[in-house]
Fold these 2 entries.
Entry 1:
Amino acid sequence: SVTRMAEIMEWTDKAVRAAEVIFDTPQCGSEKREYVIQFIDRMFNSKKQVITKDQIRILLEAVLKQMKQS
């Protein structure tokens, strides 16, 4: 649903910001991405799959693009 997707997008944004703080060394982009993917996967897919890892990756890239534009 639209509400669920908005919630996932909001949490993806928060997870990206957290990853920026947790992994603050240069050249750790892959670790940041994996952190966000695992975080969202655990949060929303704990009982049944709501979103695939590929979908999470797409949302992650959208959030990163938004962050770079602002």
Note: The first helix runs from residue 2 to 22.
Entry 2:
Amino acid sequence: FFSSIATQLALPPHRLMLVGDHPVHDADGASRVGWRAVLVDRAGHGHDHPRATVVRSLLEVPPLLAASPL
């Protein structure tokens, strides 16, 4: 799924970021194919993910995009 999206967008995986709320379906899937993964933990359950940046709010995402390498 993630690889086919990168192909359709004609972008290398390191240029893509997935923002999701599921540690396995979102963060694991994206990070396995080289995307940056952001895991939203709105409720503050203390999710910790070895390959994703964990945020509490979507308001934390724009600075991550600005800091992303091209």
Note: Residues 37 and 52 are 5 Å apart (CA to CA).
